[in-house]
Amino acid sequence: GPLCSITREAIKNVNPDHTDDCHSFLLNFRKMKTKINKKTVLKFSGILLGILLLSVLILFSVVIGRTFTFKVNTELGQWENTTTIYPDLSLEQRKNLLQNFKVAIQIPTVSFSESNQNTSALQEFDLLLRRVFPKVFSSSSLVKHELVGNYSHLFTVPGREPDLEPYMLLAHIDVVPANEADGWDVPPFSAKELNGFIYGRGTIDNKQSVMGILQALEYLLERGYSPRRSFYIGLGHDEEIGGPKGAVNIVKLLKSRGVKLLYVLDEGLTIMDGMVDGLNGPAALIGVSEKGQATVKLSVSSAPGHSSMPPRESSIGILASAVRSLEKNRMPNLFGHGPERATFEYLAHKFGWPHKMIMSNLWLFSSLLSGILEGQPDTNAFVRTTTAVTMFNSGVKINVMPAYAEAFVNFRIHSAQTLQEVLKLIESTISDERVKVELVSGFNPLPISSYDDDTFGYQIIKKTVHDIFPQVTVTPAICVGNTDSRHYTELSPDIYRFAPSWYKPGDSARFHGVNERISIQNYEEIVLFYFQLMQNSDIRNLSPPHT
Fold first, then answer.
1. What is the pLDDT of residue 61?
2. Which of 207, 131, 413 has its CA nearest to residue 424?
3. Residues 6 or more apart in contact with residue 24 via CB below 8 angstroms
4. CA 406, CA 199: separation in Å to the nearest integer?
5. Which is the catalytic residue, given 126, 174, 267, 340?
6. In the annotation, is 452 catalytic?
7. What is the pLDDT of residues 317-337, one digit of tens each?
8. Nearest to 524 by CA among 136, 85, 89
9. Which residues, listed in sequence order, are joined to residue 496 by a DSSP beta bridge?
10. Can you tell me the mean pLDDT for 381-390?
11. At a CB cut-off of 8 Å and minimum separation 6, what does 374 contact?
12. How far apart are CA 205 and CA 188, in angstroms?
């Protein structure tokens, strides 16, 4: 109305005869404004679409370019040659080393619990080592041997150049229990050969390393080997129950002597073959850290009563609800906050399409990969703190309401979390004052050891893998289990967990399970690996990486 009046006056001043053209003028004005608005919107939309297409094109170019050029798994240049002795094993030597290993498997060095170990078997194993490795035990000027905690062994091999920092090799003698009735194809302590494999408890955990290390040293001593760099060998007898008398006391002894170690190599991860979808060829996973651990006790107390007059919620029901909350609400996915991202990036160039594109561009696809990994129990362990309810106890009689219920939950803590952070998350997830949460035992994740190009220990292990297994790609990884090496953190910042045992699809279930086995060829390779590692470690300095 007001606009029309103003417009009419303006028109009247210009042309008194056309004062009625107000509405037609406004209508035309609106049409013109609409056309201008449409043109502006279309022009602006076109600009936005162009920017979007250009961004997609740039992003696509970056992803494709990175896919074909990305490689962080560099190789070092020319190495100093310290291999002066070559392992030309005769048929008789192969037969003997195999027989020695079989006898080791046949001795049931079982750790049942902290208060129950087969000590007679440990004594028998001690006699075996002394009998089959005479050079190691009789060359007192070359090898110093000490018993620690009655059944563990510490060997000191002095080098020609005492200014070089020493390293240490670890393994453990004890094994977990095994019962033929659980479904073994052969008796678990028979060391029976079957289709090219030796079956028995300890074949991959961890007598293959115990015997492999000492067999390698025996062969080197027989050939007149005198190392340039000093090294130690530690064989624990109670690793399966935490190493309280073996590894712990070995560490105390070395600390009292002021020993510092250049690197430590223990059991842990292995060579994976055919176990990673899309990966071309086998991969040796070198554990650069271990997950932490917490055992938590949950308990509920309530008034007892007769089952004919039950309360609305029983102690069992309350506790079951708490347990269900922990299982339903998993710990956060922390992929990329620990070494697990590097595992895939170091293998990226060995993947086929489209896996290669994803692994080469985890800056873009990490959420996609982490979502896939958390879908399976074995790979979910790499991306988060895992929750495992292992014990649940309650009730004394079928018609009595229990006054008490308890459950034990085992958490394996991701490298990016601490023990205290996990405990707080447990409390907040349960969020029930009736449930008492107690820490039974636990420790933080182990520090992440370096795997850079200038890190001596990692690169020496990597070179030795390539010397013995040239077809294998080496990558850093997280060890989800725990080893004796966790006690050695005060002696060295660089601790690695790896034994060159081959794992193929289905073999992971054999670890602490039924039908544990190792191929005859693989055991020979393990001996050769340590034979070469001892000589490679005599290198004074690493060579620079290829440019």
1. 85
2. 413
3. none
4. 38
5. 174
6. no
7. 999 999 999 999 999 999 999
8. 89
9. 265
10. 96
11. 333, 335, 380, 383, 384
12. 13
Here the tokens at position 323 are 């347990």
Here the tokens at position 444 are 């933080």
Q: What's the confidence (pLDDT) of residue 50?
A: 86
In the chain, what is the straight-line distance between the N-terminal and C-terminal CA atoms, in Å? 80
pLDDT, tens digit (0-9, with 9 covering 90-100), for 386-429:
999 999 999 999 999 999 999 999 999 999 999 999 999 999 99
CB 268 within 8 A of CB 173: no
**pLDDT confidence of residue 24:** 65
Per-residue pLDDT at 251: 98
The two three-digit tokens of residue 99, written as one number: 């027989």
In 3D, which of 162, 318, 119, 137 has the Cα closest to residue 218?
A: 137
Measured between alpha carbons, how far is 208 from 217 in angstroms, rounded to an integer? 14
CA angle 220, 251, 157 (to 5 degrees): 20
302-316 residue pLDDT tens: 999 999 999 999 999
Helix and strand numbers, DSSP H then E, in the chain: 15, 19
Amino acid at position 295, single letter: T
Cα–Cα distance, 450 to 468 (Å, whole number): 23
Q: Tokens representing 373?
A: 């990994």
Of 126, 205, 218, 239, which residue is the catalytic one?
239
Contact present, 348 and 71 (Cβ < 8 Å): yes
Question: Which residue would you say has higher pLDDT here, 525 or 70?
Answer: 525
354 preceded by a cis bond (ω within 30 of 0): yes
Cα 174 to Cα 233: distance, rounded to the nearest angstrom:
16
Catalytic annotation present for 239: yes
Go through the chain and tell me how many residues it has: 547
> What is the sign of the dihedral through the CA atoms of 118, 123, 127 and 132?
positive
Cis preceding linkage at 13, omega within 30: no
- Tokens describing residue 379: 């790979």
C-alpha–C-alpha distance, residues 176 and 413, integer Å = 23
Radius of gyration over every alpha carbon of the chain, rounded to an integer in angstroms: 33
Inter-residue contact 148 to 246 (CB < 8 Å): yes
Axis-axis angle for helices 207-222, 520-536 (nearest 10): 60
Q: Write the pLDDT tens digit of every residue in 113-139.
A: 999 999 999 999 999 999 999 999 998
Nearest C-alpha neighbor of 462 from the set 415, 488, 496: 496
Mean pLDDT value across residues 20-30: 59
